[in-house]
Design a protein that fits this description.
With 397 residues, the chain is α/β, with parallel strands linked by helices. Helix content is 39%, strand content 16%. It contains 14 helices and 15 strands. The strands form four sheets. A seven-stranded mixed β-sheet has the order 2-8-7-6-5-3-4, with helices on both faces. A hairpin with a 7-residue loop joins strand 11 and strand 12. The chain is globular, with a radius of gyration of 22 Å. The chain starts with 9 loop residues before the first helix and ends with a helix. The N terminus is likely disordered. Bound molecules: pyridoxal-5'-phosphate. Pyridoxal-5'-phosphate binds next to helix 4.
Length: 397
């Protein structure tokens, strides 16, 4: 296989991120830093264009409404969807809670998850009263789709998998996941939190029924996320929160509701969040998600090779993981590793990464995790390696 191409101008990409000067930020899987274009869009929205949406009859409000709806169209088009198929939420967590709470069970009270899911794709199903089955992983840390095929049944309403694992970076074969879910009449929900910032996504080709992601992991603002759903499914779902903006007519006797997506967006929405998300979508599209994917893939290979060359470092996950490398230094708790790395100017996440069942499967309480973004480069990996060597020195004293 040819070595994937790097983003040519990594330095100029990095220069667009004002908050990471002299800092090796390797925690983009937790939240992405923001490029100046996104910061500017948010600043302008508040300092020049601000007004509410969907209500005002004055021109500024109408313009803001158009911007808000343009953001919806862009956020949906990014993953191959239509504007009316995208519901704005507070984030991926709320998107999954929304589906779990609203989807009629129709006599199928089970959900099929996997051992590597983020808590956001476990707990909402439990709270909504679903019985949970969990697909095991392969040795490499992929969701075992052979096992999933055996496990899925007519009792499952939903199969819900992470498109990319936030700990291992494993990428699922989405088409196969859709086929196995649909073979038993179940729906496929993909948690796209870690995939959308890292690779091109097309919900149509994948055969997904629902797709969730968060803006803040895609270089956009916090407080806004997306739930894409097939049109006819959204149309069949009842409202889950009531309030302004989602109603057709309210009387004390009876209230009727708007069509999706408005039906699911009660209250004043995160208008400026949507505008920031739109700027983030434009930013990644300008760079191209193909280029970002190739760039992160090359960094993962370089990082794994460098860490593997250090004695006593255990690597987790598949070799071809998407932008995420989890590891441990033998005999050192991941929190200690991350604290020493912090002293060396390197930010990594340490802990269970909101994936305790996965930690159980790995047989460790925690891992350290380096995760890459479009602005990452070899200097980040070199700093990480120097930091890990320092961890080893300190713990061998
Ligand atoms: C795979 C995955 N799913 C869901 C979430 C939850 O995202 P948010 O906290 O933005 O709702 C995360 C965040 O870390 C994640 O990595």
């Amino acid at each position: 296989m040819n070595a994937p191409a790097r983003i040519n101008s990594a330095l100029s990409v990095r220069d667009q991120f004002p908050a990471i000067v002299n800092w090796h930020y390797l925690d983009s899987a937790a939240t992405a830093q923001k490029p100046q274009a996104v910061i500017d869009a948010i600043t302008e929205a508040y300092s020049r264009d601000y007004a509410t949406v969907h209500r005002g009859v004055y021109e500024r409000s109408a313009t803001m409404t158009a911007s808000y709806e343009a953001a919806r169209a862009a956020a949906s088009a990014l993953i191959g969807g239509k504007p009316e198929e995208l519901v704005f939420t507070r984030g991926a967590t709320e998107a999954i809670n929304f589906v779990a709470r609203t989807l009629p069970k129709e006599g199928r009270g089970r959900v099929l998850l996997s051992q590597l899911e983020h808590h956001s794709n476990i707990v909402p199903w439990q709270l909504a009263g679903f019985e949970v089955d969990a697909v095991p992983l392969t040795i490499e840390g992929q969701i075992d789709l052979d096992a999933a095929e055996q496990m899925v049944s007519e009792r499952h309403r939903v199969v819900a998998f992470a498109h990319v694992s936030n700990v291992l970076g494993s990428i699922i074969d989405t088409k196969r996941a859709a086929e196995l879910a649909h073979s038993k009449g179940a729906l496929l929900l993909l948690d796209g939190c870690q995939a959308v910032p890292r690779m091109p996504v097309d919900v149509g080709t994948m055969g997904a029924d629902f797709y969730a992601y968060s803006a803040h992991k895609l270089y956009g603002p916090t407080g806004i996320g997306c739930l894409w759903g097939r049109g006819e499914l959204l149309a069949s779902m009842p409202p889950w929160q009531g309030g302004g903006s989602m109603i057709d007519r309210v009387t004390f006797e009876k209230t009727t509701f708007l069509d999706p997506p408005a039906r699911f967006e009660a209250g004043t929405p995160h208008v400026v969040g949507a505008i920031g998300l739109h700027a983030a979508v434009n930013w990644v599209e300008k760079l191209s998600l193909d280029a970002i994917q190739a760039h992160e893939c090359a960094l993962v290979a370089e990082c794994r090779e460098a860490l593997r060359s250090i004695d006593g470092v255990t690597l987790y996950g598949p070799e071809d993981s998407a932008g995420i490398v989890s590891f441990n230094v033998d005999g050192v708790h991941a929190h200690d590793t991350a604290t020493i790395l912090d002293d060396a100017g390197v930010a990594v996440r340490a802990g269970h990464h909101c994936a305790q069942p996965l930690m159980d499967w790995l047989g460790v309480p925690a891992t350290a995790r380096a995760s890459f973004a479009a602005h990452s480069d070899s200097s980040d990996i070199q700093a990480l390696v120097r930091g890990v060597e320092q961890v080893k020195r300190i713990f061998s004293e």
